[in-house]
Amino acid sequence: MPLADSSLAPGRISAPKGPARGLFVTTILLGSFLLFLIQPMIARMALPRLGGAPNVWNSAMLVYQALLLAGYAYADWLGRFSLRRQATIHIALLALAGLTLPVGLAGMTRVSGLPEELWVPLLLGLSIGPVFFAVSAQAPLMQRWFAADPQAGAPWALYAASNLGSFAGLLAYPLVAEPLLSLRRQSLVWSAGFMLLVVLVALAGASRFALPVRSGARERGMTAGPIGWRRIVLWLALSAVPSGLMLSTTTHLTTDIFAMPLLWVIPLGLYLLSFVIAFADRRGGALAVSRIAPVVVLFAGSYAMVSNGSGGLWMAGATCLLLFCVATALHARLYDARPGPAQLTRFYLVLSAGGALGGVFTALAAPLLFDWAWEHPLLTLAGALLMPLDPLLRWSENGGADRGPVRIALALLLAFAGFLAWQLYQYALHTDGELVALVLTVFLVGTGIMVMAWRWAFVAVLALAMVAQGGIWTIRASLNGERTRSYFGIYTVHDRPEERMRTLAHGTTLHGEQSLDPTHAHDALTYYGPGSGVSLALAAAPAAIGTQARVGVVGLGTGSLACQSHPGQHWTFFEIDPVVLRFSTSGRFTYLRDCTPDARVVIGDARIELARLPADSFDVLVIDAFSSDAIPMHLLTREAMRVYLKALGPHGLLLLHISNRYIDLAPVVAANARAEGLAALSRLDIPDDTERYTPSRWIALSEDGTMLDRMARARPDMPWTVPHEGSAQPWTDDHASILPYIRWDRLAGSW
User: Are 424 and 443 in contact (CB under 8 A)?
Assistant: First the structure.
């Protein structure tokens, strides 16, 4: 597509020049850094108050996207004025927004009768709306101001600088801000950064005051011509697909490859870096990545439908490489399709809208439309449809796309490829699959390279490769109804007839099993075996507490604990995801129906729901929400412990399940226990029967130390130990971080 401004054509792009270049780069870097820093910070502030329900965070995502789009629209609107007027208006807006500092949740009470879908946007909008809106306009606005000087050079490299700032903010929060600073101090540091930004914006504006006073439409001699709708649709598509693919890559990694702490940082970081390369003045990097991207898509994209939970470095790396190459290639094409500087802010407005469109499709629509992460292969195919294709092999001078014999030969080649792929797949089922899979991959990649001159054939080979490399099993699982999806994740119910066992998995994390043998249907399996801490505690409850014990369980899962109940007890379950409850009520898992048919089930965030209960509501409270690799930290702070203790009363027993592959939570719980004056015992269970039971760690806490003594004495052959906190500090709502407690050795071993 030809460029609207010939001075920006490839080979004539010059880097930003002049003494103001460093000022504009610094201003854009800081603004983008602050924008990426405030989102996780406000989420941490809101989590204890709003809980972790999906409607809360879907509303929050829409608030962020709406504010970002509004900021870009404001920057576009501001372009109609002279530079002096733009600078005056924007600095005044920044000053007004600064009146809401320091950043924090607005201290307002919920309006009676206002639904959560409206209350959450209202609260977040009043809390960070002014500063978020003002800062979000920085990237397009600073580029427009920079481009107003004819001697400054092309402004597009400043967008690369903007994404470097975003990348720095992305890494700074989990690696620096969260571990080292309390939320109060984070807010103060961010506020100081905002004040510095105001100063830099003022200096940037002042650096342009010496330019001739012109109307906004005539800045730098630029007259804004009309932009056709086809071009706008192309911009939307080229920005929407990488945005959606970034989110779908995260879902695919954690669901079907492996889950690990902070994994979401990698896809988002690669997405931001793709902008840096694609919008750089030097085009070598973008051209090189665009050149190899089709081959990478053929290889790594062929595994986009894999759903068998296989992990390892190579597949995770290939998935991330796929995202990076597709995003860079599409963003490079977006750069090539950019307009002249007069339409700069309009271009970024459409780009932002496309990014929001991709995010809404992947995060909001896909969980409603699909039972699995089908958006990932679909977006991979969309990337193949949109990316530049430079054939590595040319069959004729003009590509041969208009010749009948070539079309017939091509169709025969594709048919043969499909037949051979199916034969190799069938053979792999009965032999060593790794070697056959390698042969199949090489064959399909080679076929894709041969037909690269025809986009439709290239995409067809990619789709065939997805199905042949394991996608057929994913399709069958969907057709058989094995999976259920919600905003919390993808659940798979799988029967193993030879073992007479039914399992429930959330991504790669096992959430429970039940025997299909009627004689063992009530056996508590996996983390809840006879030697687990929770089984020992519940077995001792009638003698230690009485036969009328009131038991609360946070986290329903398959309902395994229900069959640990005793006659006369009253049970209540708390579950945040209604889909999980349907597994028990639909008859797929029968623990709840068979053993505690009268149990009450409360749907919602456990901390919020428990806080609403009167004091002394339970004698035993089981918190079973930490067995996944995503830690809901707001359920493990000192403030959360106080909610549990209030619900228990002075002689109650609190049981925490802290089994985790990559995070050692025992020191945190021990530190919290010390800070709250609680007695604590830890039970690490390493079962002999690893077919039925899973290693687990449970920690029991109570304000009454004699309660723990009675529990421990009930089974002296199953010893409990005192947990050691080491140098751990208690977690609070104001300061908590998983970073110091990650088991880096296990993490490295997984890779």
Answer: yes
Q: Please, what sign has the CA dihedral across residues 358, 359, 360, 364?
A: positive
489 touches 507 (CB < 8 A) = yes
- Report cis status (omega within 30 of 0) of the bond before 40: no
CB 183 within 8 A of CB 50: no
For residues 638 and 302, give the distance between their C-alpha atoms in angstroms, rounded to a whole number. 47
pTM: predicted TM-score of the whole model, two decimal places: 0.84
The length of the chain in residues reads: 751
- State the DSSP H helix or E strand holding residue 609, giving kind and residue range, or none if neither: helix 606-611
User: Quick one: pLDDT at residue 644?
Assistant: 96
Tokens of 467: 């199905």
* Cα 540 to Cα 706: distance, rounded to the nearest angstrom: 13
Angle at 252 between CA 251 and CA 255, to 5 degrees: 80
Residue 369 CB neighbours (<10 A): 11
The residue with tokens 């030097």 is 282
* Helix ranges restricted to H, 99-228: 116-136, 138-147, 157-172, 178-180, 183-206
How does pLDDT run across 585-614, given as a tens digit for each residue? 888 899 999 999 999 999 988 999 999 999
Task: Kindly report the number of other CB atoms within 10 A of residue 612's CB atom.
Answer: 11
Q: Which amino acid is at 173?
A: Y
How far apart CA 32 and CA 136 sit, in angstroms, is 8
CB 654 within 8 A of CB 702: yes
**Which residues are CB-neighbours of 595 under 8 A, at least 6 positions away?**
522, 559, 562, 563, 565
Question: For 453-479, what is the HEC assignment?
Answer: CCHHHHHHHHHHHHHHHHHHHHHHHHH
- What phi and psi values does residue 621 have, to the nearest 5 degrees? -130, 120
Mean pLDDT of 22-47: 91
HSE (side-chain half, CA atoms, 13 Å) at 358: 28
The owner of tokens 């690990």 is 260
User: 50: part of which helix (H) or strand (E)?
Assistant: helix 21-50
Could you say which DSSP state residue 103 is in? P
| C-alpha to C-alpha distance for 681 and 673, rounded to whole angstroms | 10
pLDDT in tens, 249-269: 988 887 655 556 667 788 888
387, 297 contact by CB (below 8 A): yes
Type of residue at 746:
R
Q: Would you call 483 helix, strand, or coil by DSSP?
A: strand
